[in-house]
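Bumping my old thread because nobody answered last time. Still need a sequence for this structure:
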């Protein structure tokens, strides 16, 4: 995986962020599944932590002067998604989702995570909402 964005491999982030994810948190980054009809940069925005048995989603907002503002959220079995959480919001305008329902990867408020696959789905919804709302 790339840490500098110059490789054709998926991009994870700066060396400092990669170290934080992989060494300090134990998260193994991966690409979220592609969306139909969308050209998406090869950026890892989800990952799994075996030790915590959690899926994580993340994003980054670039500030005007140096650095960025990163957000990272974990999802585990037994967790309930709260009303107003970003992963419950559509990543695309409703008119686009009506034309292409597969674009809606959000989860409903009150969604209970019952399996690790559900946790992965919530992590994807979280990273989608960040990415397509200008966080990437």
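Sorry it took so long. Here it is:
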């Amino acid at each position: 995986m790339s840490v500098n964005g110059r490789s054709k491999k998926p991009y994870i982030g700066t060396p400092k962020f990669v170290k934080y994810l992989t060494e300090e948190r134990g998260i193994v980054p991966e690409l979220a599944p592609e969306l139909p009809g969308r050209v998406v940069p090869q950026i890892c925005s989800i990952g799994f932590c075996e030790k915590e048995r959690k899926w994580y989603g993340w994003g980054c907002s670039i500030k005007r002067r140096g650095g960025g503002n990163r957000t990272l959220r974990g999802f585990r079995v037994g967790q309930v998604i709260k009303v107003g959480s970003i992963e419950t919001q559509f990543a695309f305008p409703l008119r686009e989702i009506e034309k292409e329902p597969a674009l809606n990867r959000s989860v409903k408020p009150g969604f209970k995570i019952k399996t690790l696959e559900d946790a992965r789905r919530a992590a994807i919804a979280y990273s989608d909402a960040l990415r397509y709302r200008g966080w990437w």
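The first strand starts at residue 27 and ends at 31. Let me know if any region looks off to you.
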